[in-house]
Specification:
Helices cover 43% and strands 18% of the residues. Bound molecules: nicotinamide-adenine-dinucleotide (NAD).
Length: 320
């Protein structure tokens, strides 16, 4: 990838796709951004509107395009498909969005590309796996945005509760991006200290109770936002910028993206989030942590939930 060769193709010109581009534009990270949507007028309108940011940001080409643009793309970000309605779980989107992802992969599969693909459409873990099956690319080149957003929400809520800058909090949500996700307390550090050690020093609250409440609040974040305003997009937009930086700058950043596990954490054949080193080729390394029994078994339950979803899709495909 040349210095100027940072081409990003975004498929899905809805709230998430455009919030991501709006975060990407001022970063100067991309040299070229192409927006694709089945509703071409929407893609045209959004790209024109976004192009009017150009006098205020580093130079970048932005336009509506088509799947041929994937050929020389460095990053393809898939945000197309149905979103949750109030009270609906992400898993309930699977049937319609599996069809959307299959259509999109069929189009991308027609061009030869070295791009890394980031799946965002929900349920993201199952759809990351479906994209792998359809495209047949090396697994590390296809990543799901996974729990990067949930981990950000976790750090935000811990930071509010502990009154400490979120940058000084290392914390990961692992497993499904959904109801079975797991707060990895064993990997949570504040000011470099394991969280419970920090709590003992701080001694400001009944931390056992509060930690549990914070993990629940992370899980329920999207439901609350969807209830208030219909959908979530700014947090995921910024999470996608973070993943893009890691890939396009080959940063080798540790992020909880959704990736195919093959025996790591005693889990196989399913995409879910664990801390991964992310760089130019996508997932460069899966960080294999030794989890305590409670977190390990919660992670395995989460993997089982995603596997059940995939089995449902396979049975629909066989029947239909
Ligand atoms: P939206 O309704 O605003 O936009 C969806 C866009 O997808 C529309 O413009 C639509 O025309 C387009 N589209 C649908 N089918 C298509 C196809 N076959 N080809 C091309 N374009 C197609 O929805 P949104 O709020 O932007 O959400 C998009 C997806 O992102 C949803 O599935 C949502 O659940 C998901 N999401 C994921 C996360 C995450 O953390 N992974 C966070 C928020 C939202």
């Amino acid at each position: 990838m040349s210095a100027k060769g940072r081409k990003v193709v975004v498929i899905g010109a809805g709230s998430v796709g455009t919030a991501y581009i709006y975060a990407l534009l001022p970063s100067g990270l991309a040299s070229s951004i192409v927006l694709i949507d089945k509703d071409d007028k929407r893609a045209q309108g959004e790209s024109l509107d976004l192009a009017h940011c150009l006098p205020f940001i580093p130079p970048v080409e932005i336009k509506a395009g088509n799947y041929k643009d994937c050929a020389d793309a460095d990053l393809i970000v898939v945000t197309a498909g149905a979103k949750q309605k109030t009270g609906q779980s992400r898993l309930e989107l699977i049937q319609s969005n599996a069809d959307v992802v299959k259509q999109i992969c069929a189009e991308i599969g027609k061009v030869k590309t070295d791009a890394v693909l980031v799946m965002v459409t929900n349920p993201v873990d199952a759809l990351t796996r479906i994209a792998m099956d359809y495209l047949g690319w090396p697994a590390p080149h296809i990543i799901g945005s996974g729990t990067v957003l949930d981990s950000a929400r976790f750090r935000y809520l811990l930071s509010k509760h502990c009154d400490v800058d979120a940058h000084n909090i290392h914390a990961y949500i692992i497993g499904e991006h959904g109801d079975s996700e797991v707060a990895a307390w064993s990997m949570t550090h504040i000011a470099g200290l394991p969280v419970r050690n920090y709590c003992r020093i701080c001694n400001d609250c009944n931390y056992e109770e509060n930690l549990e409440r914070i993990a629940m609040a992370v899980k329920d974040s999207a439901y609350h936002i969807i209830d208030y305003k219909g959908s979530t997009y700014y947090g995921i937009g910024m999470s996608l910028l973070r993943i893009s930086q890691a890939v396009l700058r080959n940063e080798r950043s540790v992020l909880t993206v959704s990736t195919l596990l093959s025996g790591e954490y005693d889990i196989s054949d399913v995409c879910l989030s664990v801390p991964c080193v992310v760089g130019r080729s996508g997932v460069e390394k899966i960080v294999k942590a030794q989890l305590p029994t409670s977190e390990q078994s919660a992670l395995q339950k989460s993997a089982a939930v995603i596997k059940q979803t995939l089995e449902k899709i396979h049975s629909w495909m066989v029947c239909g």
